[in-house]
Design goal:
- By secondary structure, this protein is of the alpha+beta class.
- The protein folds into 2 domains: about 130 residues, Diaminopimelate Epimerase, Chain A, domain 1 (Roll); about 130 residues, Diaminopimelate Epimerase, Chain A, domain 1 (Roll), CATH 3.10.310.
- Helices cover about 15% and strands about 40% of the residues.
- The protein has a 17-stranded mixed sheet that branches.
């Protein structure tokens, strides 16, 4: 079977997007198709048809088929495809949220719900020692590590020297977060106030160029720990800056989170996928 796809990028986070046609597959089928459709991308976006009020449903899948979580960069990419050249605001139905997406000079800005769990400090026992991290749930679970905390594990280098794959797997699969696991980010604050971050994503199972929900968790952690004020510029591995701001006073009076950054359409293609006979 052949599927028409659109390849999109949000701050370097790449996705395969499929528009849902007249033939609608159940969720289980898309779970099986996700690994085939994400051979080189970070996730699959399934774009549904707008409802009566014009709201557009979006379903996100990791390359391993897991689903149900929020993806900030994916939401901005879906919005970019829906907007097209008209560049008018849209409402997405994504991971249980109504997300307003607005075009800006920097790209697309999302208005998101407040975090399910504001960043809280936790201690993890690792082979090298005790590691303090900040755990948050911003639509997907996040473990945020200020680079200074890695000194407890004997690391005293720069952000670029962190062995992200090894550390990411240790924390992502830690019993504290079983069975679902977490995204894992390490960050450092530059003198100019920019926050540099590297992220290992569960479901992708490697370091990615950017992660929107990680950017939100890092920004909130930096607000608590490093006394940074919004808007907070987050610089991921791709060096395509994401800006995080909010409405209301965190944590109790926080009304909305804003995530802003670039989103672009990379191209289109037709991809051959296979299904079992009983799945058609």
């Amino acid at each position: 079977m052949q599927l028409s796809v659109v390849y999109v990028s949000g701050a370097g986070n790449t996705f395969t997007l499929v528009r849902e046609g007249r033939r609608r597959f159940p969720l289980s089928v898309w779970r099986r198709l996700a690994p085939q459709l994400c051979r080189w991308t970070d996730g699959l976006l399934l774009l549904g048809k707008p409802g009566g009020e014009g709201k557009v449903p979006v379903q996100y899948f990791n390359p391993d088929g897991s689903t149900g979580m929020l993806c900030g960069n994916g939401a901005r990419c879906a919005a970019a495809v829906v907007m097209g050249e008209r560049r008018q605001p849209v409402i997405l139905l994504f991971a249980g949220q109504e997300i307003e997406a607005v075009p800006t000079e920097q790209g697309i800005r999302l208005r998101l719900y407040p975090p399910r769990l504001f960043p809280q400090q936790r201690s993890l026992s690792l082979a090298e020692g005790q590691l303090y991290i900040w755990f948050a749930d911003v639509g997907s679970p996040q473990a945020v590590i200020p680079i200074q905390e890695l000194a407890a594990l004997g690391f005293h280098g720069s952000l670029g020297q962190v062995e992200m794959e090894r550390l990411g797997k240790q924390v992502r699969y830690h019993p504290e977060f079983a069975p679902a696991g977490v995204n894992v980010s390490v960050y450092s604050v530059a003198e100019d106030g920019r926050v540099w971050v590297r992220t290992y994503e569960r479901g992708v199972e490697r370091e990615t160029q950017a992660c929107g929900t990680a950017a939100i968790a890092v920004a909130l952690t930096a607000w608590i720990r490093d006394r940074l004020s919004p808007p907070i510029p987050i610089v991921p591995l791709s060096r395509s800056t994401l800006t995080v701001a909010w409405e209301g006073k965190p944590p109790d009076q926080l009304r909305a989170i804003f995530l802003e950054g670039g989103a672009e359409i990379l191209g289109t293609d037709t991809v051959e996928v296979s299904l079992e006979d009983d799945e058609w």
